[in-house]
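Internal ticket #5521
Category: modeling
Description: The requester needs a full-assembly model to guide mutagenesis choices. All entity lines are attached below as received. Residue total reported by intake: 509.
Assigned to: D.W.
Attached entities:
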Amino acid sequence: MIQTIVYGFTIGAILYFFSVGLALTFGTMRIINFAHGMVYAVGVYLFIAFLKVFDDSFLLALAASVIAMLPVAYIIERFIIRRLYGEGLDYAIIATYGVLLIGTDAIKMLWGTTSQPVNDPVGISIEVAEFGLPVYRIAIFACAVVLFLALRVFFKRSIIGRIVVAALEDSDGVRCLGLDVNKYFSIIFVLGSALAVLGGILYAPISSAEPYMGFHILLLAFAVVIVGGMGNLNGTFVAALALGMVMAITGRFWSQAANAMVFVVMALVLIVRSRKLDTD
Amino acid sequence: MLQICDLGVAYGHAKVIHDLNLTLNPGEMVFIVGRNGAGKTTLLKTIAGLLKPMKGSITYNDQSIAGQPPEKLARLGFRFVAQDKKVFSELTVRSNIELAAYGAGEPMDKAWSKVTQIYPKIEEFRDMPAGNLSGGQREILLIGRALVGDPKVLLIDEPTEGLAAIVIQDIFRILSNMRNAVSAIIVEQNLSIVKRLADRIYVMKEGNLIREIADKSEIADSTQLETYL
Ligand SMILES: Nc1ncnc2c1ncn2[C@@H]1O[C@H](COP(=O)(O)OP(=O)(O)OP(=O)(O)O)[C@@H](O)[C@H]1O
Ligand SMILES: [Mg+2]
């Protein structure tokens, strides 16, 4: 059971890394960004390529691929997302879904369709109550907690963070102060993309990389963002961990249902929430 | 200094403002009165750059500004205080002003002193989330926020709407202290405020300004104005 809980926290942590960007782009730009899955998957494949370049140095390859994806994210924001402001949600879905398909096919062309394993960079397990717990999984969870705290500080203290918090609530109000919200949304978009890549890389040693990895996590992350409340950062954190736990616990008893259960929980949350709205 | 000619504004296919003309002179406080749905908010939002005009021109100091984005107009000195009294509720009161100071490139001390000057009591709420403020305090915070930087044209939408009589007095005092210092277009339905502050009044109806009242004795005669509300 301890093992299951640790696994739940690990999956939750990865979901959190991925969902933060999704939640922020929805909250600030009102855009459902399927391209997030493309950035995630391509970032991981780049990481695997960089591992060879950097002689299997996990940290160097991680830094290189995150940095390499920053301009990609910027270009997606600048030339695709920004043109979709004020258009309907459907346009955004079609355009960003196109980016996801292109990315997935590019991966298949460049790296093939077989999944690519990645070695556990720590490779040590600790014994807890006769179970082996990989230190690496605990480290991932620790990273997510650090990220959560760092983002809290960022959005509370830094001027950019506060501008974004203000724009989440009233972007017209922010613009009328002479602040170009697009610039800040760009920064946030690139930040969110970098975090998705980071999450993907941290997850790769556990899951291995395959071309459709972007699709799979995207679906789960939609559930996280919906349960957590669009654009709600604390909610995203709690929802990611909770749904990660749902996956791990379901998976322990009935592994085929692990993903499906996430959506069952999402549906329940939506039903309860709409009941609440009705009674209010 | 602000000149609007033949302005037309629409939401999609629904035309809301037709062939509207308006002038605002330096240091003038102009009021717009008119019934619900007349298009008053639409007009202010268009001047502030939040809505793009379908036709017509808006010039400010001989420069065409129609269709410019709001952040650019803010840098020219336009300040819009919206009708919904929406502050950045999760940020502290001080942070609300800090963003304005940052946007205007004004030191925070100076920005904050402008707010405390119009409403000293705001010090007590400095570090509270702005969402905790009462409606009147929010409106005052928004007016204070509009004074940060170098405001040239204030656009204030129904500042006293939904407020208690005591707070309305505060707002009246604040607006009256601003007279002559800035130019302002204020939408207001409270005629006792309008007649005491207005240099000129426009009456708006169905997307147009149907009357302009500039004569002092006419302005003071609120029974006549009431017929338009
Ligand atoms: N976003 C919108 N989309 C479509 N129509 C709108 C929109 N906003 C306002 N309208 C319509 O435009 C007209 C003018 O609205 P506006 O808000 O400018 O009026 P107003 O004079 O400010 O009214 P109030 O006194 O209620 O504030 C109304 O008929 C309104 O229904
Ligand atoms: Mg209005």
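Resolution: model delivered.
Comment from assignee: The interface with chain A takes residues 48-50, 69-71, 74-75, 78-80, 82, 86, 88-91, 95-96, 98-100, 102-104, 145, 149 of chain B (CB under 8 Å).
Ticket closed.
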